[in-house]
Design a protein that fits this description.
The complex is a heterodimer of chains A (341) and B (268).
Chain A (H helix, E strand, L loop, with lengths): L1 H28 L4 H6 L5 H10 L6 H13 L13 H36 L4 H15 L2 H15 L24 H7 L3 H38 L2 H8 L4 H31 L1 H6 L5 H10 L3 H29 L12
Helix pairs in contact in A: 1-14, 5-6, 5-9, 5-11, 6-9, 7-9, 8-9, 9-11, 10-11, 11-14, 13-14
Chain B lengths: L1 H6 L14 E2 L2 E2 L1 H5 L7 E4 L13 H13 L3 H14 L5 H5 L8 H14 L4 E5 L7 H18 L2 E5 L3 H7 L2 E6 L2 E7 H6 L4 H11 L38 E2 L5 E2 L2 H10 L1
Parallel strand pairs in B: 3-4, 4-5
Antiparallel strand pairs in B: 1-2, 6-7, 7-9, 8-9
């Protein structure tokens, strides 16, 4: 197990190095000039050159790269051209907002997708199954921004059930003292229940938007894997031995379908780490996704590559966690040892 | 398929429509048609490892069956499960009970299956080619085990196999099936002494020597009326397009072939 973790850590470092290299050069290829944007529309050529020199943008590309790599190794992701702040600090201060959104969205998606998928598999071909499949098709073909707009239009503008897409809390409400960065948890820890309630109300619409869309792949995967396990020989055995249909469904069927389902939930969560730029923008959510969006708008190279590298690192970490989860789920998988069939 | 019907475990899309299944004079057909498995019947399968839940320790799988079929409590079921595992000839049953199916050999898995089946206290055990996936020495051990347990528990066994040697060794009575139709029925001794149906004779011949290649393997056409063996039968004639009834050839020995009608009419 320890050897496995060490090996895995080594591979992860290589992956991240690859990510840094690719990201660095792709970002340089983007059109536009960060220094010119920073200097403003009325700046003289001299002023732009001055800024370019300040951020090292005038040096040869590969020199910049070596510098950057050395910086990343020390935990220094450079300075944002737009805000003049260290990129790492800005990303870390915004990460909890994104993670809170991601965790609740995946939770909602799982709560919808898993039970619905199981029932659809158990009652294949009935109306429940049809509803589940229609839901899955809707979820996977619905554009996030469109669904988000519909949510805002109906539940905020028309019905007024939820607050508008402005931030994580109402204007003027101080956030709870930071422990985890999740307002819902920090608020509870500080005993500020009205803050917790408000945080949930502000989370509701973006979480429902994402949860609905993310539930679709989970539902589809649960349904198809459970159908597969229900057709297996061991399910036939269990039934031949008098085990009740309900137990067969959950203990023999769903339990053995967990592996592909976990993979899907992991992929969905990984997608959330980098992919909710649209929803964060739509709901003015102060997370890393919106930060990246703003960075793109202003040619803020350091900020953008900091974001991509951070997402890459989170993704690699997530994959290690998923692999560890496999070993818990399936006794046939033992990490670090050759699998014998 | 017939045995799955006996268990009420027919796959979706296939229904029990006609016929009758009785056990000790009790009609089981309606329950089976609705997919309820009868408590008195249980089944062991061809691929023992695939037939065990891969994510559950085998001891727990046996204990689960005991809890359901004998109403034992959790801790008691655990003990009885270990007992059962040693009764089916598993050495170190306590240790094996904590193993997962993939950690056991095929023969071991089949023993676990038999232990589970015993836990159901069946009156009829259906053994669907229980040894085809095992090698010959293990096969003999499993045969012995099944025979011993039958003697001990006085449960009946329906033994499904392609292996005539296994039939000769294990069975009292034989039903020869081809394409789902009953071809011949007799006591084992009688069947081997005077096989009456062309298919049975062909089967027995095929064990002794290389058979005539004109009878090559063909898929059974279930859509055709009449005897399903007709298109491969060397003695086929006009009447074979009809479905033959069972002809009594003496001593509770029946055979479904119009040849018998011909012979009788010639004799009389």
């Amino acid at each position: 197990m320890r050897r496995y973790l060490i090996k895995r850590a080594g591979i992860s470092v290589m992956t991240m190095l690859g990510i840094v290299i690719v990201v660095f050069f792709i970002v340089r290829v983007l059109p536009g000039d960060a220094a010119a944007v920073r200097a403003g529309p009325y700046a003289t050529a001299e002023k732009i050159a001055q800024i370019r020199a300040k951020y090292g943008l005038d040096r040869p590309l590969w020199e910049q790269f070596v510098d950057y790599l050395a910086g990343v190794a020390r935990g220094d992701f450079g300075v944002s051209v737009r805000t003049d702040q260290p990129v790492l600090g800005e990303l870390l201060s915004r990460l909890p907002a994104s993670l809170e959104l991601a965790v609740y969205s995946v939770l909602v998606a799982t709560v919808i997708g898993v039970p619905f998928g199981i029932v659809a598999a158990a009652r294949q071909g009935t109306w429940v199954d049809v509803v589940a499949r229609v839901f899955a098709i809707l979820g996977s073909s619905m554009a996030l921004f469109w669904l988000g707009l519909l949510m805002i239009y109906f539940f905020f503008f028309r019905l007024g059930w939820f607050p508008g897409p402005v931030d994580r809390l109402a204007v003027g409400t101080p956030p709870p003292p930071t422990v985890t960065g999740f307002y819902t948890i920090d608020g509870a820890l500080a005993g500020q229940w009205e803050v917790v309630a408000m945080a949930f109300r502000f989370l509701a619409l973006p979480v429902l938007t994402l949860g609905f869309v993310l539930a679709a792949p989970i539902l589809k995967m649960v349904r198809s894997s459970v159908i597969e396990t229900l057709a297996s020989d061991y399910v036939r055995t269990a039934r031949a031995m008098g085990v009740s249909p309900r137990t067969v469904l959950f203990v023999d069927g769903f339990r053995n379908a967990l592996l592909p389902v976990t993979t899907t939930i992991g992929i969905v969560f990984g997608y959330m780490l980098g992919g909710n730029i649209i929803v964060e923008y739509l709901f003015s959510w102060p997370g890393v996704g919106r930060y990246a969006y703003e960075a793109i708008q202003t040619n803020d190279l350091e900020a953008l590559q900091g974001f991509v590298i951070m997402v890459g690192i989170l993704y690699v970490a997530l994959n290690v966690v998923i692999d560890l989860g496999y070993a818990l789920i399936d006794p046939r998988i033992r990490l670090g040892r050759k699998v014998t069939a | 398929m017939t045995s799955l019907a006996l268990m009420g475990l027919l796959p979706p899309g296939i229904e029990l429509r006609a016929g009758s299944i009785r056990l000790e004079g009790r009609e089981l057909t309606p329950d089976l048609a609705e997919g309820r498995t009868p408590r008195e019947v249980t089944m062991i399968f061809q691929h023992p490892r695939g037939a065990l839940n891969p994510t559950m320790r085998v001891g727990r799988q046996v204990a689960r069956v005991l809890r359901i079929n004998q109403g034992l409590g959790a801790s008691e079921a655990k003990e009885v499960a270990v007992d059962l595992l040693s009764r089916v000839g598993i050495p170190g049953a306590e240790r094996v009970a904590r193993a997962y199916p993939h950690q056991l050999s095929g023969g071991m898995c089949q023993r676990v299956m038999i232990a589970m089946a015993l836990g159901c206290r069946p009156k009829v055990l259906i053994a669907d080619e229980p040894t085809t996936a095992l090698d010959v020495t293990i096969q003999a051990q499993i045969f012995d085990l099944i025979r011993d347990l039958v003697a001990e528990t006085s449960c009946g066994v329906v033994f499904i196999t392609h292996d005539l040697a296994a039939v000769a060794e294990m069975c009292d009575r034989v039903v020869v099936l081809y394409g789902g139709q009953v071809m011949e029925q007799a006591s084992t001794v009688d069947l081997f002494e005077r096989p009456s149906h062309p298919y049975t004779r062909y089967l027995l011949e095929s064990v002794e020597r290389e058979v005539d290649p004109h009878i090559e393997e063909k898929d059974v056409d279930f859509g055709l009326p009449g005897c399903r063996f007709a298109h491969r039968c060397s003695e086929v004639f006009d009447r074979c397009v009809e479905f033959p009834p069972q002809f009594d050839v003496g001593d509770g020995h029946t055979s479904a072939c119009f040849r018998h009608a011909e012979e009788n009419s010639v004799a009389s």
